[in-house]
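Database export, one record per block. Field names are fixed; values are copied verbatim from the stored entry.
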Amino acid sequence: MPDVTQILTAIEDGDPSAAERLLPLIYDELRKLAAARMAQESPDHTLAATALVHEAYIRLVDVDQAQSWDNRGHFFAAAAEAMRRVLVEIARKKGRQKRGGQRKKGSLHEADVTVEPIADELLDLAEALTELADHDPRSAELAKLRLLAGMTLDEAAGALDISPRTATRDWSYAQAWLSRVLRAHDDNGE
């Protein structure tokens, strides 16, 4: 069986057939990653885990945008980030639609009002993770893997190639930091 890291290097080098060889090797893992992420979404979410995998994969292996991965763990961290971006884009789009979008004016009935706290919470979390990344990039990456990819602390430590003790310390810091920032967002009504 070909090594995932070798295929990732071939993709980085512009081999167009490498992406086709990679997907069968990692599809099940990406599907589990997407399923864990989708389990955190509202039950009426319109995107299926399979569609999330495909959208994220297309973004990851786009030969027009050169990307490089250090190893398999780095690739899966990038996959988690790609999935997060897809979901954030969908949440933003829903937010625009919820606030009018391209709709025509009409009467407002109570049945027309929908609240999507999950989408709003995802946007707040995405913003907080971006702020954390500016402050402490490694803790932000760890938090993304834990919160968005559903990885255990040990899995995330392995993906980031850090010790479990460092991962525990970074995770504690990220939790406290994100909690403080998200609480401040709530207190300010954002």
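Remark 1: Residues 42 and 116 are 8 Å apart (CA to CA).
Remark 2: The helical segments are 4-12, 18-38, 49-60, 72-98, 117-135, 137-147, 153-160, 164-187.
End of record.
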